[in-house]
Amino acid sequence: MSRTIIIAGNWKMHKTISEGIQFLDALALPTETKQGFEVMLFPSATALCSLSNHRPELSYGIQNIHEEPFGAFTGEISATMAKELATVALVGHSERRHVFMESDQRINLKIRAALQANLRPMLCIGEKLEERQQNKTEEIVLSQLRLGLKGIKITDLKQLMLAYEPVWAIGSGLTASPDQAQTVHALIRRELKNMGITDTPILYGGSVKPDNAHALLLQPDIDGLLIGGASLQAQNFSDIIALALELLS
Predict the structure, then answer these.
(1) Is 130 an annotated catalytic residue?
(2) What are the pLDDT digits (tens) for 184-196?
């Protein structure tokens, strides 16, 4: 069976334009386009234009969008604005949920806004440490998935991507084991199938590094990686790209 692998880097609030260009100059990429393989970056919004012009062979995403198409929302970026610079929008990242207190209902509106603007939404879902310790992983993950997609037509979700990011593993140095990650990915896959949604890539995120990326990508329901800290270093990100390419060779 053919396979698609997506390697995505979320820079969060790191790297100026000049630092981003230095990173791209140091990044090792395949010399030829590899079918079923995509490298994606989520830099700061201020760097999107410069970086996408510098290395246009990559896919570029925006880290956040507002749910309204325009209006008096100082400092915000609409999906329509983002579409001029990016092809993907992160929605529901744990920092948006738990630092900026975004609700599932607002996340649902952002997914709708992304789809309306023809941006590919990447919905992030995942449980906190105390929720996992209380055996609530399935309850939390499925609730976030269902509420995030509530009321959206299946035919409108062909461009949907998902990222499972256990909150307890993000930036903590802890990583879900390959078996733990696969279990949740399989759960998400079953739920999507029950909803009538097929062929949706599901990425894993949470303290991904070169030394654990290979084992994670070997899992049958892990279609790629959403990488935080390791994506800030060109060598680490290049190493993970190389590991992913080996699986496709």
Answers:
(1) no
(2) 999 999 999 999 9
